[in-house]
Amino acid sequence: MLKKLILAAAGLALTAPAFAHDGGRGHGWGHHFHPRPVFVHPRPVVVMPPPRVFYAPPAPVYYAPPPVVYHPAPVYAAPVPVLPPSGVSIRLHFPL
C-alpha cells in the first residue's frame, strides 16, 4: 500500500508541469495580463421631422327625400251600442 502511494505521488510530481498554464512559462492568468482596450462609440443622434399625414376628405352624403306613400282612408266597423246598466247585480266575493 505504501509502495502504491509513493508511486502515485511521484507520478503526480512528474506530470504537474504539463498541467501548468501555457507550459509553466508564467504568461497568462496572473502574470502581465493586459486586456484589450474597448472603444464604445455613442449612437449618432438623428433628428427627423414627424411624417406628413394626408387624410382623404369624407365621402359626400346625399339624403334623398322620403318616398311619398298615399294610404287609403281608414274604414272602421260601426260601434256596438252600449246597453244601459240594469239594476241587477250579482255580488261574488272571492278572498285572494
Describe this structure in words.
- This protein is largely without helices or strands.
- It is built from one helix and no strands.
- The chain has one helix spanning 2-15.
- The N and C termini lie far apart (114 Å).
- The model has no long low-confidence stretch (mean pLDDT 77).
Layout: helices, strands, pairs:
Layout: H1 2-15
Write a concise synopsis of the structure shown.
The chain is largely without helices or strands and 96 residues long. It is built from one helix and no strands.
Instruction: Determine the structural class based on helices, strands and strand pairing.
Output: little secondary structure
The fraction of residues assigned to DSSP E strands is under 5%
* Fraction of residues in H or I helices: 10-25%
Biggest pleated-sheet summary: none
- Backbone CA Rg: 56 Å
DSSP summary, beta strand count: 0
Sequence of secondary-structure elements = H
- Could you name the ranges where pLDDT drops below 50 across 5 or more consecutive residues? none
**Mean pLDDT, all residues:** 77
- Output the number of helix runs: 1
Q: What distance separates the N and C termini?
A: 114 Å
Shape: elongated
Question: Which short descriptors sum up this protein?
Answer:
1 helix; little secondary structure; 96 residues
